[in-house]
Amino acid sequence: MSAPGETGVRVLVVENEAIVRQGLRRLLELEPDLVVVGEARDGDEALERIRALTPDVVLLDLRMPKRDGIGVLEALGATGPRTPCLVLTTFDDPELLLRAVRAGATGYLLKDAPFEQLVTAIRLVAAGGTFLQPALTEGLVRGFDAFRAAPEGGAIVEALTPRELEVLRLMAGGYANKEIGDALGVAERTVKNHVSAILGKLGARDRTRAVLKALEQRLL
């Protein structure tokens, strides 16, 4: 996989519906730093194209023939280093969000999101970040009343401070450390310290799992 920025962020569009797939490609190709390297219409074709094209980011539909998006994520996780995958779906569903992220998705975005948000999410995921758009919506948080997943890593050892909760909410929105620092008026190094503290208190090994744990514990 080439480093994002050398020739632009290389994107593979995986989408069941031809009109949507072709429309996404045309829109993304208008962005000077994004390069659409290919398309796939089902899960099996997606895995073939990922292996052949080594994209920086996979824009991944969930409902597809032959193998769905979750199946693609699971297959990628079983074969070695994982290609960053941004799920683009119509389903604002807490169970699907958890399943997708636990299977390896680094982003989750609804198809009715503004195009600018999609571009931001692609760039963020390519740079190693996460983007979980529905994480701050009331509907998703309410949905956890009906979804009782066992938290990974056990209970929270220590309560989060008010500032750490602010940082956590911005993390859930997909913001990078510098953006969080700008929003809160603090240095990026301070944000890094808060993120490290949050990961430790939540017993999470990365930002995505920290957001999931926070959702499960009703902190967001």
Structural features, described:
By secondary structure, the chain is an alpha/beta fold. It folds into two domains: 128 residues, Response regulator (Rossmann fold, 3-Layer(aba) Sandwich); 67 residues, Arc Repressor Mutant, subunit A (Orthogonal Bundle), CATH 1.10.10.10. The chain is built from ten helices and six strands; from the N terminus they run E-H-E-H-E-H-E-H-E-H-E-H-H-H-H-H. Strand 4, helix 4 and strand 5 form a beta-alpha-beta unit. Helix 8 packs across helix 9. The protein is globular and about 45 Å long. About 9% of the residues have low confidence.
Cα shape: globular
Provide the CATH top-level class of the largest domain.
Alpha Beta
Q: How many domains, in number, for the residues?
A: 2
Rg from alpha-carbon coordinates: 17 Å
Approximate helicity band: 40-55%
**Strand/helix succession:** EHEHEHEHEHEHHHHH
CATH architecture of the largest domain: 3-Layer(aba) Sandwich
Cα end-to-end separation:
35 Å
Short précis:
By secondary structure, the protein is of the alpha/beta class. It is built from ten helices and six strands.
Blueprint of the fold:
Elements: E1 9-14, H1 18-28, E2 34-40, H2 43-53, E3 57-60, H3 69-77, E4 85-89, H4 94-103, E5 107-110, H5 115-126, E6 131-132, H6 138-143, H7 162-172, H8 177-184, H9 188-202, H10 207-216
Main attributes of the structure:
220 residues, Arc Repressor Mutant, subunit A, 6 strands, six-stranded parallel β-sheet, Rossmann fold, single chain, alpha/beta
